[in-house]
Amino acid sequence: MRAVAETTLTFEGRFASEFEELAVPWKAAEAPDPQLLALNEGMALELGLNPADLRTPEGIRLLIGNLIPKGATPVAQAYAGHQFGGYSPILGDGRALLLGEVTDVNGRLRDVHLKGSGRTPFARAGDGFAVVGPMLREYLVSESMHAMGIPTTRSLAVVGTGQPVRRETMLPGAVLTRVADSHLRVGSFQFARVNGDTELLRRLADHAISRHYPAAAAAPQPYVAFFDAVIAAQASLVARWMLVGFVHGVMNTDNMAISGETIDYGPCAFMDAFNPGAVYSSIDEGGRYAYANQPLIAEWNLTRLAEALLPLLHEDQEQAVALAVESLGAFRTQYSAAWLSGMKAKLGLGAGATEDIAAPLADDLLALLQQGEVDYTSFFRGLGSAAGGATATVRALFVDPEAFEAWAERWRALMPDAEAMDRVNPVYIPRNHLVEEALAAATAGDLGPFNRLVDVLADPYTERPGQERYAAPAPDDFGSYRTFCGT
Ligand code: AMP
Ligand code: MG
To answer: Lower Cβ count inside 10 Å, N or C end of the chain?
Structure first.
């Protein structure tokens, strides 16, 4: 038999060896009957892994940390974090492990990480496990985000463990094998800061700079430049979320990646009808992480990062605060610019549509969409065909088509480019009713709907005949959607 762990890739334990204070060596729980539920062959190839090897019993055990590959030293990572505004000085991976880092075929260093791999010393009251539905959900949504060009952690595989897990009912257990540029979070820096360890903080920042923002190392004030780069990455990321109608759902500081990737898909969802107050998480009762709050929350989280970084910004605390405030001041401008530029692209507008014209046009449109409870994704995709004057399809989405027509006249005067619109307005997003349908079937043992949905979402901008049901809004009886954190 081929020894998959020997012949394939070599892991590095960079984080494990460089950050002993933040890395607890740990082992994944032994899965009684591991079964491969989903394998991302493209991702495997990108990592330099042979998909056929990963499908063998040995390969499957490697994917869940039951067979430890060469060089891997699995660790649970320590981090702190603000959860719904409240501070926890110790969170850490309660049910996850970093297997190690791998240099992919493009020479890029990637983390390979397990989620649902059993209790760790950070588990507190949790059981350390994850169940099939939510792990396939992260797989679906993260791969869809990637296909839309939105920075995100990736999903390599989901393996059913054969271990039943107690939730509201007994559910089948699973492990997600996740790939990320790194798992450094705002909470990692908060952890170093709360422990008063400036030397650790500095090493952490140096590590993040070398992995994500190498240009900062050459700046006159490297740590200020690093903070600026994280701000810019988040401003751009959250703008991308807003432009596709994505609600993350749990923007705690431990769920904000320093790399600028979307991370930790829990009770996330895409809006159907445009609604700034959209909340899908059953535990977000106050709507802290509602759709329209996301840019403000990102800024709030970056302010927590600034507090953590202060000792690196300047030795004098007052001057450090002044530098942090100055850097943070850029967030709103950068976010607004990224959002408006993305919205102009969605509307097919070029450089001729200056900000004073495009911004009110966009705002007026969103007010109309909100008023009419119009399906956000269908509207923008349909609007492309309205560029030439064929407004029937989008018009039909409005209860008050007159107001829309008046808006469309203003818009058409700017000569929108329909073809360009189709390149940025997705036809296929992971609509909640489709995701639920796929997960319910998968949990009951039928992976057909999941696999078909994965295929459709892999190419979001190309409309395909016969796939109409994947483009359509939820049926009226789907009701108000909630996703649960009982993951
Ligand atoms: P999350 O909101 O999923 O990012 O998780 C917040 C914290 O709770 C992290 O420290 C997780 O590792 C931990 N956690 C979540 N679910 C479990 C579980 N079932 N068992 C142990 N720890 C968990
Ligand atoms: Mg998390």
So the answer is: N
How many domains is the chain built from? Answer: 2
Whether 263 is in a domain gets the answer no
Q: Compute, in angstroms, the gap from residue 265 CA to the centroid of ligand 2.
A: 8
The 10s digit of each residue's pLDDT in 324-366 is: 999 999 999 999 999 999 999 999 999 999 999 999 999 999 9
> Torsion over CA of 251, 254, 260 and 264, rounded to 10 degrees?
-70
Q: Which ligand is nearest to the CA of 256?
A: 2
Q: Give nearest CA residue, ligand 1 atom 8.
A: 94
d(CA 399, CA 405): 12
Say what the pTM is: 0.97
- Does residue 10 lie within any of the structural domains? yes
Q: Name the residue type at position 206.
A: D
Q: Is residue 320 part of a domain?
A: no
Query: 182, 203, 225: which is the final residue of a domain?
Result: 182
Per-residue pLDDT at 1:
42
CA of 80 from ligand 1 middle (Å) equals 12
Active site residues: 254
Buried b (16+ CB within 10 A) or exposed e, 257-295: bbbbbbbbbbbbbbbbbbbeebbbbebbeeebbbbebbb
Residue after which a domain boundary falls, among 182, 197, 229: 182
Which regions of the chain are under pLDDT 50?
1, 5, 485-486
Q: Give pLDDT, residue 482.
A: 74
Range of the domain at 133: 2-182
In one letter, which amino acid is 309?
L
Burial degree of 324 (CB within 10 A; 0-12, 13-18, 19+): buried
Report yes or no: 22 and 191 within 8 Å, Cβ to Cβ.
yes
SS3 191: helix
Report residues whose beta carbon is within 6 angstroms of any ligand 1 atom.
Answer: 91-96, 122-123, 126-129, 250, 254-255, 264, 266
108-166 pLDDT tens trace: 999 999 999 999 999 999 999 999 999 999 999 999 999 999 999 999 999 999 999 99
What is residue 466's three-state secondary structure? Answer: coil
